[in-house]
Automatic annotation (TrEMBL):
HAMAP family: Trp_synth_beta
EC number in record: 4.2.1.20
Protein name: tryptophan synthase
Domain of life: Eukaryota
Record has Amino-acid biosynthesis as a keyword: yes
Function description: The beta subunit is responsible for the synthesis of L-tryptophan from indole and L-serine.
Subunit composition and interactions: Tetramer of two alpha and two beta chains.
InterPro entries: Trp_synth_b-like (IPR006316), Trp_synth_b_CS (IPR006653), Trp_synth_beta (IPR006654), Trp_synth_beta/beta-like (IPR023026), TrpB-like_PALP (IPR001926), TrpB-like_PALP_sf (IPR036052)
Gene Ontology CC: cytoplasm
The keyword Cell membrane is annotated on this UniProt entry: no
Length: 504
């Protein structure tokens, strides 16, 4: 039976009482590698199979982190500042106030090593955190590899991905400041769903601009957002000036995250009771996601493992940062030395083919300029790109860490990603979202190398969400209709032509 089987069945079992006699039945949540007091190593399932508690039945309980970790505090060279889109001077807190609440502006510029997580946020985190760390034994067997593969699974959140880790605190801080409405963009739909979910908990209105290609391909993501009370528009739309301009130039455009960001930012800037929320890229977003890596450190310590290689997918970079940043801290402290590898789609390769320049975060040039690896804010991925991770730039902090040499990056074409996803689904049982298929494909590559060399590497990868609402992409792959996209240098050069020549 799969290692994670107990996660879905634990509530039906009796557990041996603790020494205090306080637990006559399973009272703790099934999440992650939290151990039941004196739980038996094997549980008898009703269908006759047996399941082990995730990873190690004797592992210590894993507590939800009480602080977010800020990597900036430990970097030997601090990242370049963001610049005002009009003056090109470093952004001041008051420049960001039309878009973000005060506390998030403080976190964006913070140099503190740790920032306390509000108890109200931790209470909501308890709905799904801590998340499971699972050894992929059946995938290892399928690949016949000596490598030990572990994945940190964030798909157990209500929205089915890692995105609520930042959606909840963002909406919380907006609610604390008396904001009535939040607006955002979404590409694959995971972020829009997460913000809608968080807004429903705090009673805020939520309005989402969903990239047109995704809006058409993923109707159930739209329905999830609407179920949680959000208003959803295809982007570009006729609601905003920036959207109307794009439609005038190309009525059939598939849209892009850059365009959708412009629309949401425009609405936030024009309404005093409305703020903008972003699901990736910015420092405070990456900060909130470090609950993933902090939990994972404790979970791996509890089972006596240290990763030799950490692999994560990257679009804007929030999940990758969430898993890797705490491990980079340990690496900088000399406590471990894993190779840390980002994996991006060949169709949107900002780290591996982009330039490290100041660029706008949106298509209309309304956001601050950020120094990042970028394909140009006018870059629009091909609509047949099914692998998520569609943003034209990489998070500035990840770009900076990459420039410092603390991580490496590769790109993988989408057919290899979906081939790996099928292998994963048919061995581990979970259907990955398109985004983590990139990390899975890279993990499989490395595991097969270990098969050739005989190395028993410990590989840790990020499984940032499930693919239950992404099945049309799987259908395209299974029917043989998914093809690899050729990345044309001419297209890149055209998009880079709009990148402003500012900063150093």
């Amino acid at each position: 039976m799969a290692t994670h089987c107990v996660n879905f069945c634990a509530s039906s079992f009796d557990a041996k009482p603790s020494s205090s006699g306080s637990h006559s039945r399973v009272e703790k949540k099934w999440l992650g590698s939290i151990a039941l007091d004196r739980k038996p190593k094997n549980l008898k399932l009703s269908n006759g199979c047996r399941a082990r508690a995730a990873l190690n039945a004797d592992s210590i309980p894993i507590e939800i982190p009480r602080q977010w970790y800020n990597l900036i505090a430990d970097l030997p060279i601090k990242p370049p500042p963001s610049l005002h889109p009009k003056t090109f001077e470093p952004v001041k807190p008051e420049d960001l106030s039309p878009l973000f609440p005060d506390e998030l502006i403080k976190q964006e510029a913070s140099g503190e090593r740790y920032i306390d997580i509000p108890e109200e946020v931790r209470e909501i985190y308890k709905l799904w955190r801590p998340t499971p760390l699972i050894r992929a034994k059946r995938l290892e067997k399928l690949l016949d590899t000596p490598a030990r593969i572990y994945y940190k699974y964030e798909g157990v959140s209500p929205a089915g991905s890692h995105k609520p880790n930042t959606a909840v605190p963002q909406v919380y801080y907006n609610a604390q400041q008396g904001i009535k409405k939040v607006v955002t963009e979404t590409g694959a739909g995971q972020w829009g769903c997460s913000l809608a979910f968080a807004s429903s908990l705090f009673g805020l209105e939520c309005e989402v601009w969903q990239v047109r290609a995704s809006y058409d391909q993923k109707p159930y993501r739209k329905l999830m957002m609407q179920t949680w009370g959000a208003k959803v528009h295809p982007s570009p739309s006729n609601i905003t000036e920036s959207g109307r301009k794009i439609l005038l130039m190309d009525p059939s455009t598939p849209g892009s995250l850059g365009i959708a960001i412009s629309e949401a930012v425009e609405v936030a800037a024009m309404n005093a009771d409305t703020k903008y929320c972003l699901g990736s890229v910015l420092n405070h977003v990456l900060l909130h996601q470090t609950v993933i890596g902090e939990e994972c450190l404790k979970q791996m310590e509890a089972i006596g493992e240290t990763p030799d290689l950490i692999i994560g997918c990257t679009g804007g970079g929030s999940n990758f940062a969430g898993l890797s940043f705490p491990f980079i801290r340990e690496k900088l402290d000399g406590k471990m030395s894993p190779v840390i590898r980002a994996v991006e789609p060949s169709a949107c390769p900002s780290l591996t083919k982009g330039v490290y320049r100041y660029d706008y975060g949106d298509t209309a040039g309304m956001t601050p300029l950020m120094k990042m690896h970028t394909l140009g804010h006018d870059f629009i991925p091909d609509p047949i790109h099914a692998g998520g991770l569609r943003y034209h730039g990489m998070a500035p902090l990840i770009s900076h860490v990459y420039e410092l040499g603390f991580m490496e990056a590769i790109s993988i074409p989408q057919t290899e990603c979906f081939k790996g996803a099928i292998q994963f689904a048919r061995s581990e049982g979970l259907i990955p979202a398109p985004e983590p298929t990139h990390a899975i494909a890279a993990t499989i590559r490395e595991a097969l190398k270990c098969k050739e060399t005989g190395e028993a590497k410990v590989i840790l990868t990020a499984m940032c969400g499930h693919g239950h609402f992404d099945l049309p992409a799987y259908d395209n792959y299974l029917q043989g209709n998914l093809v690899d996209l050729s990345f044309e240098d001419e297209k890149l050069q055209a998009a880079l032509g709009s990148v402003p020549n500012v900063g150093s």
